[in-house]
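Dear colleagues,

As part of the handover before I leave the project, I'm documenting each prediction I ran so the next person doesn't have to rerun anything. This entry is a single chain, and its sequence is reproduced below.
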Amino acid sequence: MKNHLLLLLLILSGNVLGQIDKKATLQTRNLYRNLGALARTGVLFGHQHATEYGHGWSGEHDRSDVKSVTGSHPAVIGVDFSGLSGRPADAIPAYAEGLRNNVVDTYERGGLTTVAWHFSNPASGGGFYWKDSVSSASMALIKPGGSHHTQYKQILKTVGDFAKSVRAKDGTLAPMIFRPYHEFDGDWFWWGKGHTSREDFISVWRFTVSYLRDSLDVHNFIYAFSPDNKFRSEADFLERYPGDEWVDMVGMDNYGDFGRDGKYDLDAGLKKLKIVSGYARKAGKLAAFTETGLESIPNPIWWTETLLKTLKAEKLDLCYVLVWRNDTKSPTHYYAPFPDQVSAPDFVKFYNDPYTLFENDLKGLYR
């Protein structure tokens, strides 16, 4: 019953944040408003690919490593649109079907899906990473008027068709947080700052939202803008911001300040989260800690003494925090604990803290 009284008061007061799709489905509008309310007193916990696979397993119904440790799935499940392009056309339907089942299952359990897009370069090889001598600087090519713009529209059509296919048994569409072109302030992706101008990035972002929303009638997306952690000021954070009329949620991906390679700068991490949250308050948007984590989690108290302490240090109004995936084969590439992992006992403390919300805590997220 966490946060329900506050949520009801906000709904009755008509406190609706600045959602950019005026034709959004009822469930998507409710989700947007409810996330804003919940962020005032807690934070939803998320894990990438949590129910698709985990440490040493894959494709088991209703399983996640988080559930194996706590008894509950994460409140937020991360998925990826990577397989909707950049592969043979006959392979896409099977990928989409598995993804659809995952999104609908999460929605029917009462949880939330957030979507990353590791988008394979549509104009060259190299996949989603930038590879010297292989990759093309393709944001200039897929924008309106570019040589690959028609191809980009076809890819967005595949995304739009998927978005309109995720129907639950009651006929409603599952809302999703769509987070394209993340970590754009780095150079590791082909859409990164070193490979595209500010103007071209903003042009592609605006076209993407407009085409999905206004041309393809996709009305179950919440659009999230999330650089990596390179900014030091609000001006830096907004350097490639497409405008309030094109963004629903602002966020940040930040591994570097939270223990990567043994380096911690929690004061810097908190300062950046305050910039994100502060801008969201001013603009009437949602805010989130869109990616973080510590690979292999060697710090046995990372959850309470690093992550939770930072989240609770200031009034941040973040609706969720998401850690990265648990690879099914790698012995070291994981970001959430599993039974007997060294940080599992601390993660249970993190789970039990009233500030953190998992799937079992969510009641009426779409009402």
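The CA atoms of residues 56 and 328 lie 5 Å apart. The chain has one domain: 4-361.

All the best with the project,
I.
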